[in-house]
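the two lines:
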Amino acid sequence: MLHLLWLVPAAPFAGFVLLVLAGHWLSRRLIAIVGVGSVGLSALVAAAIAAVFLSLQPPALAYSQTIWTWISVGRLRADITLYLDALSLVMALVVAVVAFLIHLYSTRYMAEESDFRRFFAYMNLFVGSMLTLLLADNFLLLLLGWEGVGLCSYLLIGFWYTDPANGRAARKAFVVTRTGDAAMLVGIFVLFSSLGTLRIQDLMARALQQWGEGSLLAVVAAALLLGGALGKSAQIPLQVWLPDAMAGPTPVSALIHAATMVTAGVYLIARTHVLFSLAPDVQLAVAIIGASTLLLGGLSALAQSDIKRMLAYSTISQIGYMFLALGVGAWSAAIFHFVTHAFFKSLLFLAAGVVILSLHQQNMMYMGGLRRSLPLAFWTFLVGAASMSALPLVTAGFYSKDLVLLSAWVAPVGGFWLWLAGTVGALLTSLYIFRALILVFFGLELQQPTPIRGPAATIPLLALAVLSIVGGSVDLPRTLGNPPALTGFLQSSLPGEPWLGVGPQTEVVLQVVSSLVALLGIGLAFLVYARRPEPSWEARALAAGAVCFWHSGWGFDWLYDRLFVRPFVAFTSWLSRDPVDWLYNSLALLGQASYGLLSATESGRVRWYSAGIALGAAIAIAIGVFV
Amino acid sequence: MMLVLLIAIPVVGGLGAWAAARWGPDGSRWVSLAAIAANLLLSLALWAELLQESSSGQWLAEFSIPWVPQFGIGFHLALDGLSLLLVVLTQLLGCVAIVADWHEAPERPAFFHLNLLLTLAGVTGALLAIDLFLFYFFWELMLVPAFLLFLWGGPRRLQAGVKFILFTQAGGLLMLLALLGLYLIHGQAAGTYTFEYTALLGTNVNPTLALWLMLGLFAGFAVKLPAFPVHSWLPDAYTESPTAGAIVLAGIMTKTAGYGLLRFVVPLFPAAALSFAPVAMGLAVIGILYGAWLAFGQTDIRRLVACSSISHMGFVLLGVFAWNEVALTGVVVQMLAHGLVIAALFALVAFLERRTGTREIARLGGLWSTAPGLGAVALFFALALLGLPGLASFLGEFLILAGAFSKSPLLAALAASGLVFSVIYALWLVQRTFQGPNRAGWRLADLAGHEAALAAALVVFTLWLGLFPQPVIDTARQALRNLQGYAAGAAIAPQPTAGTLARFIATGFGDQSGRPRSEASPGPSQIGGHATGCWQPNLRSSRAPALARRRQGELL
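prediction for all of em together
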């Protein structure tokens, strides 16, 4: 069964190729079948492989499959090799399943779209690239997937290409992430030139052997790889592209900009966790970046009026939690939060998509009272919101966030502050998501929606809602008496459970605190936002300023525009006539001028000629006499 | 004999195309396409045959007859994996150049196709010639028909053509001086005067003189490549020449420069090239960034594509002077990739211009909705241009950067930042032409049959080279190893740093042996009369190894 691993990324790629080459002759129904079916096949194979992998006796650590030799030059060798271990299995399975559900949903969401084929072709290409990225055995193949998902993100953000604003958002996403990728590329060169291979597992083993903790090369390599991760995962300072990326269709936002692609940075760090452990300074930076990003994202989400932008900032914030976990060495906690986040965030997006499609409206200020007319969207959004707010015991988000906060608490450096940031972030999370819930589903009904029906829309919502609730049961905390299954399974790839040393009393106290914080946030949201139309405190001048500042994403766009965009445009427009050419043109002008001068001497006047002869003779004699 | 055929077929084909004009413009087109296609098949047959015998010898095929034996000039052609790949590329892009202009009847098709095919013959000859005089002969020979191709160009064709010919002639003159210098030195030392490449390898030249000769040779190739400060003929030339001319210039002729750097500059003067490497790599990095910045500022699509070429050929220069197996393989892949991508882009620009009558970016926009096929192909090649993994140019750039990194991390990192800028201009191009609103209300026909076939073929080749490059790498491997073997005398690679780079520039590019420059560098007046008195290669040559060691010691 394991030898069918190649099918997992190949099926979506085949769907893409089929849609590109033959899609012209396919009916919409067939396009949908190819688009959804290829991803479904991939998910099925992934699930079967997971079942086989789990049942292997003795437990397998890893399985790798070489499809062909890509390049081999001297000691630089990269194969098209898929590498399956606990980490890539978990992530690939989640990605394939969520992608399948979102593809299914898209058949309904995009039903009125004329460019149906292009949409599914790009989506399939994305899923194939994402699975390649996750299953890559070496850095070159990882780059193939990494840039491939970046490309699909670009293509799908700019899917409605006639609006230049969408194109700008798409290019912004590509350029900002590519900036991080360039750093990552250099990091790969550092690793390759000093350790002599591109295979990730070998690199990690050699790094462990050859580099001591805190050695310069390890720090440099980790910092450069972190650059790539920050770009892809939209963390400070490269987070600016994600809110604008919401210009794409909502299923795209759900799949690429919430559940899967943006967590590639988390995957990269988890995959190279050995390297990051060798560079404690960089690892601390990861934790601090995560903590600050989760606060920045949370506050910005609180100030948004566009439902998708709110969710985008929320994604930035939730990935901040994952980075926080990575930074304190709780690798498996980060992956656990990735899993639950993939469920509840895509659920939130899909529920928001139903609202958007039925109202043709994204501004929450024009929504309201939809809980009766769109009951499915309401209940599923409620489940997603509860899960993200980490409502205690009944939601998946509670267990993963709890594990992240617990790990932050026990971090050796700055543990309390990291925990505090995470806890404040949790308060913000429940505050902003229930603010959105209240604005959209409670109060007066401002606009009459046209309900969205059909199994293609309801099945994914229900499935993701169930997963958002029960998804946490894969890793119940010790205080509930269960062995943590997911963490245990991930041990073979991601060793280390920093929270093991914590006594059960501390753990219970922390859990109670975070539960109370979540409930406090929800209560606060109802208290502040339930009274329409305008919450009073937002109207105050100071608060309005702060809200405006948060709304703009803390002025990063303004700053980058002044720092990079405008100088670059001014510089290139000055350069466009190529100053180097002036040098050669002035040579040509000099030639012309001297030509004019010399031709003026050929005047045809005898006196000038005789004067010239006399002068020349005098000079010649002078040279003969004096030199 | 096969090698002679490779050169003869385009010549005969060109003459045939000239004669075939009596059957209308299509006549000469078909004849020239048939000739180049035959040449392509011939070179592919050579490749297929040579792949099977995994010889580790120097040449895969050879042809030699004396030409001017008094001066040691031979008509000596030879083929190894490196030249084979470039010969195949030349013939392939020759076909592309002819097909890209298919329905664009040039005014005098017979003469046009004659010039096109003669250029191709000259390029093929330069890639095969292994006698230095013969190489120079072909090198200059291809310029004349290439210059004449400008006659079919845009409104500023004369200025662009003259600029092109002045730049390349100036470079070519320096190259000739360098070749003659090497010829004389070798002749005096060995007693037999010859232009034979293999004989001239390993000639002992005193280091300072070697540096000057190397610089002369480098200048010739740097202009054609083009490298940073001598690039400014390129935007005009690529923009004003006809499409076929631009494809030949950008796709094929620049490759002879990369080939020349690989084949001649470093193997003939390894120590000098090594000491010059930091400067050359620095220029390469400037070229990579400068070209990308220049491209973004352009308002004419074709000029934008042309400027991007400066950036991509900068990678070739970087890889050559990094001079290790990874980087050199990257150079080969990059040259092939750049040829495919630039040819495709020029062809696409031509398709677009034929439909809209303009190349002004500002007048285009929103074309995707009316010509999605054209848009998809343009998007594909824009992605190839920005180095998307899986497509050919990414692999070339990756290998070059990986190789250059082990030599100079700083320069490689700077060059890697060029990848960000290439995204900016490539996506901007797509945005302004195919995306956004269709303000001008263009209604265009989508790709026609021959256009679609051409585009599909180039797409397939670009993907193939990006995903299955190993046959190409295997073909080039032995040739590159041989070249490295020739240069192995100077193989103790110094680690150039910013400090040595600064020292190089400060000391006027070299002369690190501490002697005054005036003593060692012969002025032009000295070359003529007192050859033995001033040059003294025999005496100096005994000091050369010691000097080389001292130089390296200083560098390290």
